[in-house]
Amino acid sequence: CFGRGVDPLVDAIATGRAELRPLSGIDVSDRWFTAKTAMQIAPPTAIHRPFDGTTREVDAHRWPAALAVETALDAVVSAGRPHHLGPPHRVAVCSGTSHGSNHGLLEHLAQVHAGARPDPTLLADTPAIIALEIAALLGACGPALTFNTACSAGLNAIGQAFLLVRDGRADCAVAGGHDAFSFLSLAGFTSLRALDPEGCRPFDSARAGLSLGDGAAYLVLEREDAARRRGATVLATIGGYGYTGEGYHATA
User: Which of 15, 95, 225, 244 counts the most CB atoms within 10 A of its CB?
Assistant: First the structure.
């Protein structure tokens, strides 16, 4: 919601800026909805792709997928296109999401609820489609994995990509997460009373919950010696990754 690329995000963090706006596309007039704002991105009708220099039209229902795919391709361009430097079967894609592209699903359900004949094409975009689309555009033939572990999905995607590279199953991995604002998220977090009506205030003693919005972030992972050898700008190193399955309840 701060803009495309790393610099706008860093600037927003440095200045403590928030981009909370009145919720659009959803009727929240009922007092049950305590939060009336979110950090949404207005879906564009077209988007420029530096990866291949083209401009693509974006359908409203395809916007969540486009947000993920274009962000992943931007990461590859920023990293110097390392997928060109090795065999395709050694390039992996790991993508995490909580809801994927469920806007089509929700529209399908709305049509059913209204008694209309639902459009089956609205169910075409499953979360796994995103990783496959990124891999196809990169010509990557290595593992293309999707992680759907709610709020930890993006981090697990990066962690599992780290394991693929560390264990020699891939030379390069594009990994990250994405989610676009969804009525399902709004209703769920409202039910949990987890949203701050005044907007999220990290590290504030008066903080009262989180805020929802649109976002995507992807990274390119390589072994350090390979990155140094090709003269890449190394942004960070992963010191370790661990995950457990001790959660006994989805939200408790």
Answer: 95
